[in-house]
Amino acid sequence: MTLISDRRERLATAAPTRHLRMLPATALTLDLVVIAGIGGLAALGREQLDIFARSANVVGTLGMAGPAILFCWLLAIVVAGGYRRNVFGAGTEEFKRVSNATLATAGVIGIACYLTKFDLARGFFVPTFALGLPSLILGRYFLRKAIHGLRRRGALQQRVLIAGSEPHIDEIASVLRREPWLGYQVAGALTPEHDLREETASGIPVYGNIDEAASIAALTDVDVIFFAGGSMGSSNQMRKMIWQLEHEDVQVVVAPSVTDISSDRIKVRPVGGLPLMHIDPPTATDASRWGKRLFDIVGSAALLSLFAPLLLAISLRIRTHDGGPVTFKQTRVGLDGRKFECLKFRTMVVDAEQLLAKLHEEQGYESGLFKMKDDPRVTTPGRLLRRFSLDELPQLINVLRGDMSLVGPRPPLPHEVATYDRDAQRRLRVRPGMTGLWQVSGRSDLSWPEAIRLDLYYVDNWSMMQDLSILAKTFSAVVGSRGAY
Predict the structure, then answer these.
(1) Which residues cross the membrane (predicted)?
(2) Domain ranges for the chain
C-alpha cells in the first residue's frame, strides 16, 4: 500500500484550483459592466431620440431608478443561481437562469412602478431590458468560450476521482479526456474492495477503495468524485456516502452508464424518492421527414442562386488549368444504402483514380476514409478549393435532387460500407450531408472511430436546432481550414 499512500500524498500537494473560485466574481463583474453599459445607452437614447413622450423629470427619475434597477437585476441573478460554480462552462442552465432573472426583474419593476405610480420613463425601461437580455446572454457566451479555451490549454481544471468498476472507470475517463473543454482532469480512481490492482487497463492510478472516498477527499485536494457503474451495491450505500462527503469541499457526480445521448432525450422524474431516468427513442426517423426535406430544398436552391457567380468562376478556373472536366462524379452510398453520384469540383489530376492503388500501398492504407496531406494528385487550383471546401459546392445539386441533405453524416464510399459493422450501418438511416458533426469537429484530423462515433451521435440525436447549430459552426470551420486537405 506504499505506492497508494505516495499517490495520495502527491494528490494532496497538487496545485489548488483557486482560479475556479474566481469564475462567479468574473461573471458578476461582466454582468455589472453589461447592465451598466446598457442602462447608460438606454438613458442616452431616451434623451437623444425622444422615442416616447417626455416625462416631467427624466434625469431625476433615472438618477434614482438606474442604480435601483442595476442592484435588483444583479440580486435577481444571484437568487436564481446564476453565479454558482456548477453552471459555468456547459449546458443551458446558465443561460436559463440569467434569462429568468432578467424577465422577473422587468416584471417586478414594471408592476412596482405601476402600483406606486412612479414615473419611470418608458423610453428607458423598454430598451434597457430589450437590449439587456441578449447582451447578458452574449456576454456569458463569450465568457464560456474563454473558459473552454483556457481549459483546452490546461487551465481552470477540476481534479477528478472516478469511483467504480474498472470498465466503467475507463469509459468515463475516455469521455472526459475526449472533451477537454469540460475541464475535468482525471487524477485517479477508486475501486471496489475486492479489486487489488494498482491501476486500470487505461493506466489510471488507483488511490484506494470506494468506501475510503470521504477520507481520501479530506486528505487530498480533489474537486470532484464521479461515482460510475459498479461503485455502489445499493441506493442506501450511495446515500450514506453522500452523507460522509457533505462536510468536504468536493462535488459529487453520479455518472450513469449512458453516453452519446443528448439532453433533449433524457428526462429525470423522481418517483417515491427514486430519480428515474427516462430516455426517449433515437430520432433517426425524424431526420427523414418532410420538415427537414423542405428545409434542404429551400436552402440548397437559395445557396445555388447566391453562389452562381462563384460556381461559374471556379468552373472556368478548372477548365483553363488543364482542360479536363470541371466536375468529378463519385459513387457514394446514401439513405438506406442507395447509391448515387456525388458531385464535386475536380481538384485532382485526370488520372487520380489510377494512382490511388499506388498511394494506398505507400501509405499502408487498410480501411476507412483515405486522405493524406500533400496528396501529389491535387492540382494547383484544387488546393485552394479544398482548403475552403469550395470543391463541395456542386453537392448543393445533390441536396436539391434528394440524394443528400445540407447536414448529415459524411457520404461513404461503397467499399467503406462493405466493412461496416452493425453499429456503423446506422449511419445509413439518414441522408448524408454536405456538412455535419465530423465537419465542425476536425474533418480529416479525426480518426475513423471518432468520425463514426460523431455520425452515430447525429443519427440518434437529430434535431432541427442541432442542424442550425452545425450550419453556423461550419462557417468558422471552413474559414479556419481546420482538418481540410
Answers:
(1) 20-44, 56-80, 101-118, 124-143, 294-316
(2) 2-16+157-259, 18-152, 287-480
Q: What confidence score (pLDDT) does residue 485 get?
A: 47
Euclidean distance between the first and the last CA atom of the chain, given in angstroms as a whole number: 51
Alpha-helical runs (H) found in 50-121: 58-79, 93-116
d(CA 296, CA 293): 5
pTM to 2 decimal places: 0.73
Q: Of 397, 410, 431, 423, whose CA–CA distance to 483 is shortest?
A: 410
Positive or negative: CA dihedral 63, 69, 71, 74: negative
* Spans of the chain below 70 pLDDT: 1-19, 46-63, 351-374, 442-445, 477-485
Burial of 93 (0-12, 13-18, 19+ CB in 10 A): middle
Q: How far from the centroid of its chain's Cα atoms is residue 436's Cα?
A: 13
C-alpha distances (whole Å) from 169 to each of 35, 231, 234 are 44, 9, 18
Q: Which three cell numbers stand for residue 341?
A: 453520384
Contacts of residue 190, Cβ cutoff 8 Å, sequence gap at least 6 = 161, 162, 163, 164, 206, 207, 208, 209, 210, 212, 213, 216, 225, 231
C-alpha cell at 482: 481546420
**Which residues pair with residue 270 across a beta bridge?**
275
Beta carbons of 197 and 262 less than 8 angstroms apart: no
Written as nine digits, the cell of 292 is 427537414
Instruction: Label residue 239 exposed, middle or buried (CB < 10 Å: 0-12, 13-18, 19+).
Output: exposed
Please state, in angstroms and rounded to a whole number, the distance separating the CA atoms of residues 73 and 54: 25
Q: Would you say 296 and 467 are in contact if contact means Cβ atoms under 8 Å apart?
A: no
* Ramachandran angles phi, psi of 159, nearest 5°: -80, 130
| Yes or no: domain 2-16+157-259 corresponds to CATH 3.40.50.20 | yes
| 8 A C-beta contact, residue 413 and residue 331 | yes
Q: Please report the pLDDT score of residue 239 as a whole number.
A: 87
Grid cell at residue 31: 454582468
| Spatial CA neighbour of 32 closest among 71, 86, 79, 85 | 71
